Amino acid sequence: MAAIDVSALMPELLLIAKKAGEAIMQIYNQPASFTLITLKSDQSPLTQADQAANDLISVRLAVLTPNVPVLSEEGKMVPYEERQAWPLYWCVDPLDGTKEFISRNGEFTVNIALIVGTTPVAGVIYAPVTDELYFTDGQNGAYKVKGNQESVKLAVIGKTDTLIAVKSRSHGAPEEIAFLNQFSVADEIRVGSSLKFCLIAEGKAQLYFRHGPTMEWDTAAGHAILAQAGGKVTGPDGEPFTYNKPSLLNGSFLCTAWQ
Asked: Which residues does the record give as substrate binding sites (predicted)?
């Protein structure tokens, strides 16, 4: 499987993310009583919007890069025995922040990442409610586009004497509070989904620690974008944070606005 030129594909990737967002918004804008919610085997919620976005992204990626496999939250689970041989693949969360979608707070995203080996290289995050795109091709920095405005290059603000931490809107653990106590945190921002990575990438926060479980598709696109904006994603003790593991469940991780 040959490497692909993500920079050449980026216009279409951005369009795919936006079209998935449009499919989500068609359901989001209906009365809540019309939004069908079911529970997956792990008791996490699944909506019509998750499935609609997944179907659209999967079909369009297959057309765009027919030789690159797709690993998606709402797609067929691929056993490690098969995917361990993949040199690269798309890692997709068609609707990240389903709880935010259900609660109607607008803080949900479409996540598409390209994993090469065990590292997220390129990524697209789209926030449909605010019409904001965050993206990187993995070589030329990270960018944000809001609506029809010009793209803005993202850059972290680095480490300062006092820090701004970003925290989850729907999740939290005592371990996270204890871990952050080792830093000089002066303020915090709470937000849902992969937008936490984006806030650090665009210089609005500097620190995010997650103790509770996530999946690889929850973090891959944000990881790629933050890295290209000058930040870093590691394990709590600075160890590499890798992908395409035997288990797709992530351990604890730390996002910082510095290397």
From this structure: 73, 95-98, 218
pLDDT tens by residue, 63-75:
999 999 999 988 8
Binding residues for substrate: 73, 95-98, 218
What does the alpha-carbon distance between residue 141 and residue 12 come to, in Å, rounded to a whole number?
18
Task: List Cα–Cα distances, 53 to 60, 111, 123, 128, 215, in angstroms.
Answer: 11, 10, 17, 12, 18
Q: What is the pTM of this model?
A: 0.94
104 and 228 part of one domain: no
Sequence ranges of the binding site for Mg(2+): 73, 93, 95-96, 218
Contact (Cβ atoms closer than 8 angstroms) between residue 219 and residue 194: yes
Q: Annotated binding site: which residue ranges?
A: 73, 93, 95-98, 218
The overall average pLDDT reported for the chain is 92
pLDDT at 25 exceeding the cut of 50? yes
| Residue written as token pair 């009365």 | 31
